[in-house]
Every structure is written in C-alpha cells, then in structure tokens.
Amino acid sequence: MQHQRPNIIFIVADDLGYADLGCYGGREAAFGPVSPVLDGLAAQGLKLTQGYSNSPVCSPTRFALMTARYQYRLRGAAEEPINSKSRGSTTLGLPPAHPTLPSLLRAGGYRTALMGKWHLGYPPAFGPLQSGYEEFFGPMSGGVDYFTHCSSAGQHDLYLGEEEAQQDGYLTDLITDHALDFVERMAPGAQAGTPFFLSLHYTAPHWPWETRDDAALAEEVRQNLFHLHGGNIETYRRMIHHMDEGIGRIMESLARHGIDSDTLVVFTSDNGGERFSDNWPLVGGKMDLTEGGIRVPWIAHWPAVIAPGGESVHSCMTMDWSATMLDAAGVAADADYPLDGTSLMPLLRDADWECERPLFWRMNHRGQRAMREGEWKYLRVDGNDYLFNLADDERERANRAQVDPGRLAAMRAAWEAWNATMPAIPEDATVSLGYSIKDMPQR
Prior knowledge:
Elements: E1 7-13, H1 36-44, E2 46-48, H2 58-67, H3 101-107, E3 111-116, E4 135-138, E5 159-160, E6 163-164, H4 171-191, E7 196-201, H5 217-220, H6 233-256, E8 263-269, H7 291-294, E9 298-301, E10 310-312, H8 318-329, H9 345-349, E11 359-363, E12 368-373, E13 376-381, E14 384-389, H10 405-419
Parallel strand pairs: 1-7, 1-8, 2-10, 3-4, 3-7
Antiparallel strand pairs: 2-9, 4-5, 5-6, 8-9, 11-12, 12-13, 13-14
C-alpha cells in the first residue's frame, strides 16, 4: 500500500501507568471518563497490549526515543535519571553530533519541534535545538512545578528556544498551546507537501500533584517537588484528563485543516506509573524492571494506513517507534549509527503481524536485568534470578526458575551475551531516588 509521507506527532506522557487510561481498563473518575480522547484514538486506530518503554525511568527512555538505539550506548543514559546536579556537565546529555529522530527527519525535509519535556542534558552543552529540533518550548530538567515552572533545585526552568521564558499558566495547558500553535502554522505547508514532526512530551501526570485549580499548592511544594505529603487518586486522574483534553485540541486542529488522515499520531509513556498510578494487572512501577515499570500504553492512529479497532500483542519498545517513524517518512538511518529499533510499519498495516525478537533491559538500581523472548521473561533483582511465563502470569508471581532451569540458563546466557555488546555501566553513574520505604510502604 502506497502512502504519502505523513506528518508525525509523537506524544509522550510522563510516569503514566499501564491501566491509567480507560481503553486499558482504567476506572472512571468521580468527574467521569479520564481519557475519552485517547480512548477514541485507540478505538479508531491500533492499541498494543505488550508494548514497552526502553527503561523504567525517564531520561534513559528519552535517549532511546531520540536515537532509535539502546540507550546504554550513551554515557548520559547511565544516569537513572539525569538530575539537576548535572547542570553544567559536558558529558551527561545527548551529544549534539549524534544523529537523532528529529535531525534525520529534518534533513529529510520535515519541519521539527519539541513542545514539552527535554531531560537530555542542560545548555550550553546540550539542548533540543542542537539535536534536530527547529523549535522548542518546555523544561530542560526532569520535573517542574506546574505553575512556577521551577525545578526541584528551585531554579526557573521553562524555555522558548534557548532563552528562558516567563509564561503564566498551568504547564500542561501551556505545552498544548505551543503544540497547537505549531500545528496551525505548519498545516498550510503540510497541505502543500511539506510534512512536520512534532514531539509533544507532556510532564503530566508527573509530580507535583497539581490540577489546573491547585495554584495555591505551588508555594507549599516549593522545597520538595516530590510532594510526598500530598496528592490523591482523583487529583492524579484529573491531571491525566487535562492532558487528554489538550490532545483533543490537537486532533481537532488536524481535522479542521484536513490533514488528520495523513498524520501518524503515536502515544505512550516514558516508563511505568508512579505512586497513584494504576498498573493492573502488573506488579511494580517506575524504577522497576518488573512489568509495571516498563510495560506502557501504546496507541497509534493514522487513518490513511491503520484500520480502526486494531489490537496487537506484538512486543515492542520505544526505540521501535522511532525506527517506524523514520521508515514511514522514507528517511534512512545514518550508516555510522545503525538502529537497534525495528520498524513496525508492517504492524500498522496489519494488526495481526508479529515478528519475534528478544528485548533487553538493565538497571544500575538494584542490579536489575531483564529479557523478554516470546511469552517468556528472565528477570534479576537484587541478585535473585526469576523466570516467568507472561502468557500465564502477567503479575510475575509464579517463578519458573526451579522447574525450567534449562530455559533460565539459556536466557541468562543470551542476556549476558547481549550485555557484552554494550558499554559497561560507569562507576560514577548515579541513581536518584526521590523517596524510600521511610516515606511510604513498599509496593
């Protein structure tokens, strides 16, 4: 099937749980459906139930998203995650010389923008405009207050291009406003044959726990954006709903300009859910290589190519979607930086398509490692090895290591062979945890 080069919108939520959306089994909130727009995109497009993030924590996944390669290849991705102490570093970030999804698309004739979270190193050594984006609006760090736009270090962190931008408003809505403005400005060119690529990377529903009506909380959480003493499920769901409303505004603009059919919209989360998220039926969350930390919602919508109502059990990772976008655009990877991601274009055309390959993860935190191959998963946490059949046991409660030692040994050897092809974790790599068992009971 032939198609014209699509516009591409890559929407990434922050710390969204596997079952937080209605289309993934999430419960309704007191105010009604949490995610009607995203639920509609899933119904009109393709929903994946076995999709993964490249990491259970934010900045490493973003390295993979930008490069379509395993993040372990770059020093900055060894930070779990990059924290504000790295400000001024010339090593902890995405090297501007490295080819990226936006730089390759831009060289291929696309207009490019990032509206939302960067979290791949601080200027002047690093930044979105140095890595392929023509336009940028958003925070450079991992988490900021939704009203003051200050980071956990207390520094104002909101940029327009490479300049600090003082803008009043709720950050989720500001990100939507800038994304909508970009789409409106790019639509005439898209109609005339110049496609655009928009990274729409919300900070929602990342802490602090603030809805549009919670500006008064900004002063209260100023000294600790982790907001350990506050938040609740309804606030969290409202934050998701604000994001969903913004996505609805973007989709309305595409339709109004008649370019929705030729626009590939992909939605996911950078990692599994945090405190108030719903990961059912999975166990664990952010920072864990159990399923709740890495299995995330994946929705793809492209009416010109994707048939409505599709659902897939194909296993894929963040970097596969970056490879898919390059393929959809007809843009080749840089020969000196071959992709680890695999294009899913066949899946977009046929929801029943599958192409099995092993997927690998590792974490400095708790010495974790994981491998998924077919329905089987090998996992190590705190020096303990586990083997799970995910087709029978998505909650990873029935450890098959003792009854199938041969499979465990084979998967362990395969993981170690893969790991030998990656740079070792540097001794000075940091793990940054915002809270511990002293703050709340373990999962």
